[in-house]
Design goal:
This protein has about 500 residues and is an alpha/beta fold. It has helices at about 1-20, 25-30, 35-55, 65-75, 140-155, 170, 195-205, 235-240, 260-275, 290-300, 325-330, 335-345, 365-370, 380-385, 410-415, 420-440, 470, 480, 485-495; strands spanning about 95-100, 115, 125, 130, 160, 175-180, 210-215, 225-230, 250, 280-285, 310, 355-360, 375-380, 455-460, 465.
Length: about 500
């Protein structure tokens, strides 16, 4: 029997060697039959080898081990503390520091909430400081969505649906939802892919839908649409998205409902009316400051504003994106936040619009930094994935997620125990907000309203530290309308409410 098995094995290896020699796709295998396969095996294992055996605690990407460990520990309800001091080089250029006070405040026990709803909103919503960012059913498994929404219900925070439509997995647990509408208008689209006002109004009326968000662009791939292969469009996804089963679905890079800043502002007002007065906003990865100022001018002339704007940083992104876009297109979250915040302040609109921030928000210090840079609240996507078991395998686009989070493979998805993972989501969010409040108290403030850019320092070089108040322009209320500063004047003059232009 052993001889037979050995003979079969040698025969298989011989056949593989012959195949390697005659195939034309891989030059390496033609020159090194059999042995060349070792290279491909090592390449496939490289991410795991790098993550578990080579990288240090603080230099992994996209999230280092320290950050992942904090999320895991908080999700499990264990201590997220480290002995023996920081491993970071605090004298490295670019290092940032939050400033503690000599007179710390007591840590408040009631996490503050942010009222979302401008003067045109009749049904405002009180947003938590940390919420689940946009991730669609289809990108995530049904069990993953169930766990996230159940955790949101338990913790009293919001869950953004992503642009893939309202599924039963979003609705069944009863958690608060931000319904995101993308360029494909999934869940409220006509047969030819246009926006369907009737469907939108019906679904926006659902009690769980607290806000509606129009996705203009996302951090990982601003300016391009998405493709969902037909093989992944099963009956369930087809029903949720309102598309034909088994047919490839293409989300265009642009919206049909507007082509100018003025049309965008008018459409947002129409969405709010169709949604029965619920808060309406839009999400974007910031690019041209001039274009955003054009939207601000349109808001002023139309005398209507969205209730919120979510700034998505270029460092964000839970799904797959072309490497050139992920690495090179769009502003990082900090710059995007400061651009939007200052533009709204300078045009006198800031008190009407709340700003959300998404893009690598994972810890309490991340949350505080984003509030200092202009946000009112934050959203987290990948950190929430860590909370339900993601191990950063970076296989999200392959349908082969090893822990069942980012897949439609039912066998893999069963690994996500909804009861357990939903508790982890709630614990992680609660602990992270508590950490942010502890940091604020150490800085001598009672809450977000006491924070300012002077409390965030950045090391410019080994000998120089400057505050964000010194490093960046911070406009006064209405300054762009009265006397634009030199750094903003040319963009303000060129901004056209009837045209998107750089």
């Amino acid at each position: 029997m052993l001889k037979i098995l050995l003979f079969v094995l040698l025969g298989a290896l011989a056949a593989l060697a012959v195949h390697d020699l005659v195939q034309r796709r891989h030059s390496l295998l033609r020159n090194y039959p059999l042995l060349g396969h070792l290279r491909f095996a090592l390449e496939a294992l490289r991410p795991e080898i790098q993550q578990y055996f080579i990288e240090r605690n603080f230099d992994g990407r996209p999230f280092d081990r320290d950050t992942r460990s904090i999320v895991y520990q908080r999700a499990k309800g264990t201590d997220a503390e480290e002995p023996f001091g920081t491993e970071l080089d605090l004298y490295r250029a670019g290092s940032e520091y939050l400033t503690p006070s000599m007179a710390p405040r007591p840590v408040r026990s009631d996490p503050p909430r942010v009222r979302i709803g401008g003067p045109d909103c009749t049904r405002p919503y009180d947003m938590a400081l940390l919420n689940v960012s946009a991730m669609s059913f289809g990108s995530l498994s049904g069990n993953a969505v169930l766990a996230l929404n159940t955790g949101a219900r338990m913790g009293g925070f919001a869950h953004d649906t992503g642009e893939g439509g309202l599924s039963e997995y979003h609705l069944r647990p009863g958690g608060d939802l931000i319904w995101e509408i993308g360029t494909g208008y999934f869940g409220c689209r006509t047969d030819d892919g246009d926006f369907d006002a009737r469907q939108f109004a019906e679904k926006a009326a659902h009690e769980q839908v607290k806000c509606v968000s129009l996705k203009i662009s996302q951090g990982a791939k601003p300016g391009i649409g998405g493709v969902l292969p037909g093989a992944k469009v099963n009956a369930e996804i087809a029903e949720v998205r309102g598309v034909p089963q088994g047919r490839t679905v293409i989300s265009p890079p642009y919206h049909r409902v507007y082509s100018t800043p003025r049309e965008l502002v008018r459409f947002l007002a129409r969405m709010r009316e169709l949604a029965g007065g619920k808060p309406v906003g839009f999400k974007l990865c910031v690019g041209s400051r001039r274009e955003f100022l054009a939207v601000c001018k349109a808001m002023l002339e139309e005398d209507t504003t969205p209730d919120f704007i979510v700034v998505d940083g270029a460092e964000g992104g839970t799904g797959a994106a072309p490497l050139e876009f992920a690495d090179n297109v769009g502003l990082p979250l900090g710059e995007g936040l400061m651009t939007v915040h200052n533009a709204l302040v300078g045009t006198g609109l800031r008190d009407r619009i709340r700003i959300g921030a998404s893009g690598k928000v994972a810890t309490g210090s991340d949350l505080v930094k984003r509030l200092l840079q202009g946000a009112d609240y934050t959203n987290a996507a990948r950190a929430m994935m860590f909370a339900i078991g993601c191990v950063q395998a970076q296989r999200c686009h392959t349908n082969a997620c090893p822990v069942g989070v980012a897949t439609q493979d039912a066998r893999r998805a069963r690994a996500v125990d909804v009861d357990d993972k939903s508790m982890r989501v709630a614990r992680y969010q609660e602990a992270t907000v508590k950490s942010a409040l502890q940091i604020m108290a150490a800085m001598g403030v009672d809450g977000p309203s006491g924070l300012g850019p002077h409390q965030l320092l950045q090391r410019v070089d080994p000998h120089t530290v400057r505050s964000y108040a010194e490093l960046h322009d911070w406009l006064a209320p209405g300054q762009l309308l009265a006397s634009p500063p030199e750094g903003w004047a040319s963009d303000w003059r060129a901004a056209d409410p009837d045209r998107f232009t750089h």
